[in-house]
Amino acid sequence: MAMAGPSTTLPPPPPEKAVDVLPVDSLRDILRRLSLADLLRAALACHRWRRVASRCLPRTAPLLGYFFHPTATGLPPPMHTASKDIVIETPAVFSPIDASAPNLSLDFVPEASRFVLHDCHQGLLLLEPLGSLPKGILPRLLVIDPATRRRVLLPPPPRDTVPDDQRWRRSRHYVGSALLSRAHPSKLCFEVVCVSVDGGHPRAWVVSVDDGQCHWRALPRTTEVEVSFDPWWFETRCVHAAGKLYWHICNSGRVLALDPSTLHFSYLRAPAELPRFGNYRVGETPDDGRLCIATVEDQVMRVWVRGETRWSDDNGWHMEREMNLSNVYDTVPGLPKDKCHRIFTIWLSDMDAGRTGKLFIRTMGYGRYSLDLDTAKMERLHTKHGKEYGDPICAYFLAWPPAFLAPEN
């Protein structure tokens, strides 16, 4: 009788973890309940989680907080001593918008204390050196990625970037710089544009950076746009709004616009209804990102939107919102009660680039505030150390990791 050989038994398969057998819909419901920071951490667990997490991300990059230079609160007028007018620059700091946002810091950049924040775009910060430059010289620019703790100090353009540059150098006026584009959020691949006025016409200088390698190019002057006034009236800081870049001009009814796709300059006229020397700021509407202009004049807030309707006959603008701020000011402790005093000491400093529906209000000696367009509530913009937010107040958005932006398989 044949004897049966020894039987070979395979070990049982390891039990599946409960989380691995979750249907995609259930896993997505769980991930959607996480804060943004925890969601990004969960996406690093495995390829399956990354694919599901990418479906939970909002369409637009979320606002993480604001970078600004803290500044001491000035004295209300009249100023008694000239020393009170001196503004001492402090290194830029980050204020997270809520507890789930990361606490970013520029402590890893010791030289940042010698630079001033000028722009924030696509997860990058652009800083210019303190102090004035010799006539005709473009500055060295410092670009920082707080999320990856990378930085690069950009050299000025070589002298041969523009043919016959000596001719233009004598009349050149440097206006300002801005972050133009970013090719890859995980690397320092980006473009910066510098704006100068050469012989009465604007010129764009573009530096392309690829992980530390810099290449400058200068575009021909835009001869259709004439700068017939003193270029010192240009504000050095740009505004990103509705896909273009804008530079305000003091005491002017127009702003200088730059189209990033063509690098062509043009003038954008403000609403003709504005006072001749009225203070206005360019921005975006919070709900749909339309180009708009806001003013705070004579205790009245007004917002004009770039229109496509038959009512937009005021240089292409139509007024969308108007609010009397007299009662609003009455609810804020410490603001002057006299109307003339209010008009003299309160003005609009910016629109919130974070598209939160707020305006930033600056005062002469009474602090800085945010004004909510929907609730008409004014809140003091102060820090824990007795200082207040200084200009500019740069909204910082998360730059999505490239894996999240790639189409799903």
How are the SSEs ordered, and which strands pair?
Blueprint: H1 24-32, H2 36-42, H3 47-54, E1 63-68, E2 93-96, E3 115-121, E4 124-129, E5 141-145, E6 150-154, H4 165-169, E7 173-184, E8 189-198, E9 201-210, E10 213-218, E11 239-241, E12 244-247, E13 254-259, E14 264-269, E15 280-284, E16 291-297, E17 300-306, E18 317-324, H5 326-330, H6 339-345, E19 346-351, E20 358-363, E21 368-372, E22 378-380, E23 394-397, H7 402-405
Antiparallel strand pairs: 1-2, 1-23, 3-4, 4-5, 5-6, 7-8, 8-9, 9-10, 11-12, 12-13, 13-14, 15-16, 16-17, 17-18, 19-20, 20-21, 21-22
Domain F-box: 16-71
Pfam families: Beta-prop_AT5G49610-like, F-box-like
Protein name: F-box domain-containing protein
Can you characterise this structure?
With 409 residues, the protein is mainly beta. 11% of the residues lie in helices and 34% in strands. The protein is built from 7 helices and 23 strands. Residues 16-71 form the F-box domain. This is F-box domain-containing protein. InterPro entries: AT5G49610-like_b-prop (IPR056594), F-box-like_dom_sf (IPR036047), F-box_dom (IPR001810).
In short:
This protein has 409 residues and is mainly beta.
With helices defined by DSSP (H or I, 4 residues minimum), what is the helix count? 7
Q: Mind summarizing the main beta sheet?
A: 4 strands, antiparallel
Number of strands: 23
Output the strand order for the largest sheet.
Answer: 3-4-5-6
Question: Rg to the nearest angstrom?
Answer: 26 Å
Shape: globular
Mean pLDDT: 86
String of helices and strands: HHHEEEEEEHEEEEEEEEEEEEHHEEEEEH
Which strand-content bin applies to the residues?
A: 25-35%
Label the structural class.
mainly beta
Low-confidence segments, given as residue ranges, are 80-86, 405-409
Q: What is the terminal separation in angstroms?
A: 60 Å
What fraction, in percent, of the residue positions are helical? 10-25%
